[in-house]
Amino acid sequence: MLPRQLAASAINCAISVQKYSYATSIRSIPKSPQCPTCGAAFQTENSGAPGYLNEQKWRQMNQANVVKGLPEIEGTSESGSTEIPGLVNAKARKRSSNNANMLSDEEYKSIVSEIDDPELQAVFSGEKISGFVDPNDMQTGEPKVYSESEQGAKIDSFDTLLAARVRRRAEQGRDRVICQRCYSLKHYSRVDRPWKEDVVSDPRVLRFLQHKSNTMIVVVCDLFDIPGSLIPHLGDIIGARHPVVLVANKVDLLPKDYHEQRLLMWFKRFAKGLELNIQAIHLVSALKNLGVRELAADLTTRRRPGQNIYMVGRANVGKSELINALLRISIGGSAHKVLASHIPGTTMGLSGIPLRRFVKALVPSSGAQSHDRQSYLYDTPGVFSNKSIISYLTNEELKLAVCRKRIKPFSFILGLDQSLMLGGLGRIDLVEGPSRIFVTIYSNIRPHFTRIKRADDLVERMQAGEKTILQPPVGDAERLKWFPRQELALEHEFEGLHKQHATIDVVFAGIGWVAINGLFPRAKIRVFSPFGTGVCVRPPMMPFEFKQASPHMSSQRKTPS
What we know:
The chain is α/β, with parallel strands linked by helices. Helices cover about 25% and strands about 20% of the residues. Strands 7, 8, 9, 10, 11, 12, 13 and 14 form an eight-stranded antiparallel beta sheet that branches.
C-alpha cells in the first residue's frame, strides 16, 4: 500500500505554493486569507471583483495552506460559495485530505484484476515472483513489507521536507497566489470593470487608528494634486497624538529646474491645515527612488522600539509604490512587493508586511531586533476624493488624463473673451481685464484655445454626442452624452503682480493646474469643470517657471494677437 499512499500524498503536495498574506499578528491567523498584493479578502463568487480566485487557484491556495500547517478554508465547492466557517485542526485536515485521495482495498484489487499481463498483475497484487527483485530490497531480493507505523513515518518525513521547502519559498516571496484583478493590473494595466466601484471614499475608515498605541503614521500626498490629495482635518480622524511624517510624493513629475527649498516652504503652508503632529516633511519620488533613502533613515531614527508604521493618504498618491521603493533598497525585499498602478484604489484592504523584510532600510543589516520581530509596516486603502475630476473618467480615459512622466510646462497667450480648454475636463474664460494674459500649463492634457462663443458651441456638440477636439472624454455617442456637463465652478478676480512671475494657480483636481502670469491692475476669470467640482485657486507652486510664450498652440493654431 506504500505506493498508493505516497501517490496520494504527492497529489496534494506537488503544487505551486502561495505566500500566505501577512497577518495582523504573528500569533494569530486571519479568518479570511488576503491577496498578498492588494490586501483584498479572497473570494470565488464575484468574477472581476477584488480578491476573486477561480476554482483551480482556490484549491491551490487551500492545499498550500494544508502543507504549511495552516487551516483549510471551506466553501470551495463548484457553486463558488464564499462562506468561511471557524478554524479547524490543520493536522486532521491534512490526514483526511490524504485519505480522500487513496483507493480502498476493494477498488485497488478490482483495478489490479483488470491487468492483462499476469506478471504485472502479480507484482501489483504483492505476490512473490521468481526472478523478480523488488527495488525496495535490492540486497535480499525479497519484497519489502512495510508496517503501518513505517508507512506513516515515511509520509510524515516527506511532508516535513515539503513543508520546509514551502516555508523557504514563502520567505523568498516566491509562488504567491494573487487575485484575478491584481493579475490583470500587473500584466495588462487594466481592470475588468469600472474602477470606481472598488474605491473607498469615506475617510472614516481610518478611525481605527485612534485606538492604536505605539504607532507611527506616514501621510503620503501627491505633489501634482495639492491640496486635493490632502485629507482635510485628518488629525480628527486618526488622532492628533500619533507622530506623523508627511511625505510629498511624485516630485519626479515636476520640471527639472524646480527649487527644492522653495517648494518645501510652499508645501508647509498646506500642511498646517491637517491638524497633525507633524515631525518631519520629505519630498520624494517613490518611482525613481529619489529621497527614499533619506526618508528611510529618518523613519529609522524616529521610530520607537516595537512601533508599527501605517501608510495613510488619498487614493493614487503612491503609498504602495513608496512601500515598494523601501523594499527595493532592502536586502531581499523586492520579492515581497505589493501592487501599484495608475488606477486609483489598487489597495483594497489593510495589508501588513513584517519590518524584518526591510533589512538595511528600516531595520539594521544584522536583522530585526527582538522588539521589532512583531512589528509591521501597513499599507492602508487609499481614500478617494469625490471632488477629483478623474472620478468621471473610464479606465481608458485615465491614461490620457493622469500624468505619469515628467511634465514640460508651456506658456501661452490667453486673450480677452477667449477660453482655454483642457479637453472636456476644464475650462478658463478671461471675461474682464487686460487684452491678454500669459498662462503656463502643467497638465498631461493637450490644451485648446478658442473664443468663448466657440467654446460654448463645442460643449453643446459634445453633450449631443458629437465627437469634437475635446478629449477626454473619448468613446461613442452614448459615452459623450453621459459625460457630466461643464458647469461654472468659480469666478475669481485678481491683480497681476509681475510681468514674468505667476500670480495664482488654478487647480483642476487630479489633472494638473494652470499658472497665470502678467502685470495688470485687475482681471476676472470664470472656471468651469464637470458638475462645477474639483477646482480651486492657490498661491503659485512654481512662480518662476514662466517661459517665453510658445509661438503656436498645441493644436498648431497661431497664438492670438
